[in-house]
Specification:
By secondary structure, the chain is mainly alpha-helical. Helix content is about 55%, strand content about 10%.
C-alpha cells in the first residue's frame, strides 16, 4: 500500500464510518479487524459480462424497452452500435467496466435512457464486495493495518 492508502486505511479504522466495530479488536486482535475489512459485507461495482438475455431477466418489465432504446440509439452512436452487437453475443458486454458505466451515464444525460433504466443497467454490476475493495484497497493484510496504525 502507498502512503495515501495507508492514511485512508488508518482513517477508516479510527472513524469506523460503517460501524464494523474495529475498535473492539484493537490493539489486541488486528487480525479480526483485517477479517472485517476483507469480508464481503457490502456491494460494489465489479466486472460482469451480460447479454441481452440477462437484461431481459434482471431489469424488470421495462427491459425490452431498454433494449429497443439501445438498438435505436445504435443507428447514430458508434459506441452504442458496438455495445448492442456485444449484447447479442454469448460473451456479452462488461456492464461493470468504467467505460460502460460512463456510456450508460451519457445515455441517461442525453435522454436516450431514463434515470431508472440507466440505474437498472448499472445495478447489474453490483456484486458482493468487501469494505477494503469498496475503498479501493483490494485485500488488506495484517501488516498493512499495523503499518497504517503506526503512521
Amino acid at each position: 500500500m502507498n502512503a495515501q492508502q495507508l492514511a485512508a486505511l488508518k482513517a477508516e479504522v479510527q472513524a469506523d464510518p460503517t460501524g464494523k466495530g474495529y475498535a473492539a479488536y484493537l490493539p489486541a486482535s488486528p487480525g479480526r479487524v483485517v477479517e472485517l475489512l476483507n469480508a464481503d459485507t457490502e456491494s460494489g461495482v465489479k466486472s460482469r459480462m451480460v447479454t441481452a438475455r440477462a437484461i431481459l431477466a434482471e431489469c424488470g418489465p421495462g427491459a425490452s424497452v431498454i433494449l429497443d432504446k439501445l438498438e435505436a440509439a445504435a443507428a447514430n452512436l458508434s459506441a452504442v452500435k458496438w455495445a448492442v452487437r456485444f449484447l447479442s453475443q454469448d460473451a456479452g458486454i462488461d456492464v461493470g467496466n468504467p467505460a460502460t458505466q460512463a456510456m450508460i451515464n451519457q445515455l441517461v444525460a442525453g435522454n436516450v435512457l431514463t434515470a431508472a433504466e440507466g440505474k437498472a443497467l448499472k445495478d447489474m454490476a453490483l456484486q458482493p464486495a468487501s469494505r477494503a475493495a469498496v475503498l479501493g484497497f483490494g485485500v488488506v493484510t495484517e501488516a498493512d493495518l499495523r503499518t497504517a496504525l503506526e503512521s
